[in-house]
Design brief:
The protein is α+β, with helices and mostly antiparallel strands. It has 6 helices and 10 strands, in the order ββββββββββαααααα.
Length: 202
């Protein structure tokens, strides 16, 4: 039996034990999630089509991992204006495994419910993950003086322990790779910031 679910503004055809990547959902690996917006369930002549959703139908899945999609680079250049802008974006995604397709108002098993109850503690542990770098003592610099770093980007860098021009100027190629993988900035952007920071750090 299969079902068509709606999540993250998209539709997916799923069956038991299917593994699929969808838009980010709250929860850590091992948590149970429920999809209640079921557009269709069953197969062949016995399939039930919702109007818009099938009443009493539910799809239960287990979170496999939280991750991010491949980086998308947006490059904008203004001719004869000496202006260019590079932005990188990595969409947050969740990988889930379909465990059960329920109909007629059936409820998920106790095992799935127990996993769902355990979610808050795991989420809290994930939220306290250590930053990429250790912020130095003293007053932070105004990173927005570096061309290409706005207030939002500066705040994100501060959260990861990058607070001074000297830190940015001292970033190694390995550090740039770490930031590129963990944050929505491209390696080209960070390398450009490093060169600007060298002059500001003097």
């Amino acid at each position: 039996m299969f079902a068509v679910i709606k999540t993250g503004g998209k539709q997916y055809r799923v069956a038991a034990n299917d593994v699929l990547t969808i838009e980010k959902l709250e929860g850590a690996a091992g948590d149970s999630v429920e999809f209640t917006e079921i557009l269709m369930v069953g197969e062949g002549a016995g399939a039930t089509v919702g109007a818009p959703f099938v009443e009493g139908a539910m799809v239960v899945a287990e979170v496999v991992e939280q991750g991010r999609a491949r980086k998308v680079i947006a490059f904008k250049k203004r001719r004869r204006q000496n202006s260019k802008r590079i932005r990188g974006h990595r969409q947050h995604q969740t990988v889930v495994k379909i465990t059960d397709i329920l109909t007629g108002g059936a409820k998920p098993s106790k095992k799935a419910a127990a996993k769902k109850e355990a979610a808050p503690a795991k989420t809290e542990a994930a939220a306290t993950a250590a930053p990429l770098f250790t912020a130095p003592a003293g007053e932070p610099d105004n990173l927005t003086k570096i061309k290409g770093i706005g207030p939002v980007a500066a705040g994100q860098l501060n959260e990861q322990g990058i607070t001074t021009f000297a830190q940015v100027a001292a970033l190694s190629d390995a550090d740039i790779t770490r930031i590129d993988e963990a944050m929505p900035f491209s390696a080209e952007q960070i390398s450009d910031w490093r060169e600007q920071a060298k002059a500001l750090a003097k």
